[in-house]
Amino acid sequence: MRQKRKKNNIFITICVCGLVLMVSFCTESVKEKKTEPAVNPFFSEFATPFKVPPFDKIKNEHYLPAFEEGMKRQKKEIAGIVDNPAAPTFENTIEALERSGALLTRVSNVFYVLRSVKTNDEVQKTAKQVAPLLSGHEDDIRLNEKLFKRVKNVYEKKDTLKLTLEQGKLLEEFYKEFVRGGANLDAEKKTKLKAINEKLSLLSLAFGENILKENNAFKLVIENKEDLSGLPPLVIEGAAEAAAELGDKGKWVFTLHKPSLIPFLQYSDKRELREKIYKGYINRGNNNNESDNKKNLSKIAALRVERAKLLGYKSHAHYILEENMAKKPENVYNLLKRLWAAALPVAQKEADELQAMIKKEGHDFKLASWDWWYYAEKLKKAKYDLDDNILKPYFKLENVRDGAFYVAGKLYGLKFEERTDLPKYHEDVHVFEVKEADGSHVGILYVDYFPRATKRGGAWMNNFMEQSNRGGHAVYPVITNNGNFSKPAGDVPALLSAEEVETLFHEFGHGLHGLLSDCVYEQLSGTNVPRDFVELPSQIMEHWAFEPEVLKVYAKHYKTGEVIPQHLLDKIKKSKLFNQGFETVEYLAASFLDMDWHTLTEAREYDVDTFERESLKRINLIPEIISRYKSTYFNHIFSSGYSAGYYSYIWAEVLDCDAFEAFKETGLFHAKTALAFRKNILERGGTEDPMVLYKRFRGKEPGIKPLLKKRFGISTD
Q1: Does residue 222 share a domain with residue 173?
Q2: What is the distance between the alpha carbons of residues 143 and 140, in angstroms, rounded to a whole number?
């Protein structure tokens, strides 16, 4: 999942890959684990270089007392604002509010990242105990009548205060968050809202945990060598290593992690085994076991309707989209339908081609969804003499990563120096100091690219610390990029697929958004922007990944050092539109499903399978393709910040395709264009309306033509 949170010091919502998770810690049953303040590393600013977390000193038992103390301190800080006898001002109310909760933010940032990349039973158990407590803490602040009265007082006289642009935006954001958080409700409705929020925090937590359990529970164990038919040697070697790690030496194990799943679907000649692993993947959370998610998600959807109604909105989507560029559900549906009309015929044509290949091979079965990857790979080989096995040797992970660094250097003058002296939380992690061209410090980047049982799936960016510069006190960002890419196998290094290359560049784009932020307030800095704008900096980076000029820099054969040859570059270019119907349709289907769940206006629990079937039937999804995410494992929308927001990737693609045209028009690394993008997009965070920022960079609003050309070769709007 590729995503980033929108967060403030009151509402601790954390996005991990793309996953927003509201968690806190309760004070019961674990008091014996409390540590003294003097030995808890969270109770003061980290005494490390660049204030990175001291992972070697942080233990599980430190989190609970730090969360408890963090909530206690913030309550005291809020009381100080409320009880201030002076008249409300921007400084003593809004800035004071923005400063509050520093300890809570510090422990939250570390805990939520590590919970996603290095979880354990103790952490998960504590998180379940804590979720309602932090939910209540947040509600106690945003439903505080005296506090809201002061915020409202400042807001109502904003036109007379001579605020800077960023101060005005901060004031507006706080005021809206109080109103949207229920500050104008009566006492009875506030009590009801708090109960809903508490339930949602627990249900969302359970949903995500169930998916992690399901990911780890499924294993396809192969004992007969003939069942490995069609699989590349590297894939087989990786499966043998996975089996050995599990104590099944002499066998081969395939899992639901993408680096294991996708190659199996692409290359395995055993149709029945492709079907088995594929169904294992698409039935996650829908196995009528203790990890089943149907009840969870139907309750989440119903509670979201109830909350939206309570707050005066027609649906949860209306509530969410009010803060996004899309503004209302009709605008989202209009874009999705327009793209669907272009994509579905392309996907049907692709299906027909694959069916013809099946027939040509002498088979009489109908193309099924678990066949698509296999026959698409065969068709690509037949059409372009190209497959991932040809390309992978040129995509050594370290080289690809350095290729992304190269692009950032050419565009923005950045330098990346690996630091082996800084603490890290796992041996897979690498840490880089990011510097400007003149050597001045920009921030710290942690990269963590390999899957493990204690790590959630997908790819995402997070912060250990967000940029700010309040009162001249500069706080430099500490950013993470996380993935689940193919691991080294035997004496072969980690080699990436073309899709994984694109994903690495994507998450690095999110990282640049956080690293290059130049804002006063943490609340507005970096990726704290509307959900359908946050993907612009990440998705535009994908465009550079396969530009010939860039490929020649990083795409070097891992054995010989040979730069990727021109004939392969030509094949990549010719195959650019291949399988785009499939990729677009499966994504759009999930976007429709998300919107259908969140435009419900009746707060009742639905039968999940029936609801999903009817949703996809309305758009005439062809049976050979399923939605990219089925409801029971749709982490983005049921355990994350992408509810009524999965459309954001395609919305932002309209922006990123149009924005990249500016570079195509002026030059791939045109200094003036790059500076305009940095100054107007990457540095400004959420300090202004995103369309204002975009037009300041581009000189006009974006058009859909570049996107249609990129995906389908369509040259007219």
Answers
A1: no
A2: 5
